[in-house]
Design a protein that fits this description.
40% helix; alpha+beta; 183 residues
């Protein structure tokens, strides 16, 4: 479930996708986990006083949406999530929400200077997308980071490099092995 998403992300800091351990709000932020923790410890009195079931969740969809809205509002106890949830125009449905993750530092040292490790960044981006796409039991999601634009550039440069080097080697091979005498 979305509440336990952090369990799926634990142990991925040293292998692709190189996601930082979800141990703080800085490295991992999920409104559903925050709401669940709040409801488990404080109940719903401060955010609409809706009836909670045995699992500590509101018992109806309408109560659930209203609870999320009250919790994640700018004046609610979950105001840190205010920009992480989008509701329909009439406020009756959750249209989208964001889960924020952080990558570990994907750099390397080159001649005493710290630089981006393009290969690891490409691996992290591709692995993150594959991981999110494999979650069949969760709502449809997509992985996004503003850094992905730069990393896609690294990926294109890498592919073009190998393609161009291959073409150059083939051209040299054709010229060297050509049956025509050089005058």
């Amino acid at each position: 479930s979305l509440v336990e998403l952090d369990q799926r992300l634990t142990g991925l800091s040293t292998v692709p996708p190189f996601i930082a351990e979800p141990v703080s709000e800085d490295a991992y932020r999920n409104v559903m986990a925050g709401l669940f923790n709040f409801l488990s410890t404080s109940g719903s009195n401060d955010i609409g006083n809706v009836t909670l079931g045995g699992d500590n969740w509101p018992t109806t969809e309408a109560d659930f949406v209203a609870t999320v809205a009250a919790f994640a509002s700018s004046s609610g106890p979950g105001s840190i999530y205010d920009r992480d949830v989008t509701f329909s125009q009439d406020g009756s449905q959750i249209e989208a929400f964001r889960v924020e993750l952080e990558y570990v530092r994907l750099t390397k040292e080159n001649r005493g200077e710290l630089i981006d490790d393009a290969a690891r960044q490409i691996d992290a981006m591709d692995s993150t997308r594959d991981m999110v796409n494999s979650w069949d039991d969760l709502p449809t999601a997509f992985a996004y980071s503003s850094k992905f634009i730069t990393i896609e550039g690294f990926k294109i440069i890498q592919r073009e490099l190998f393609q161009n080097v291959g073409l150059a080697i083939a051209a040299v091979g054709v010229i060297v092995c050509s049956p025509f005498p050089v005058q």
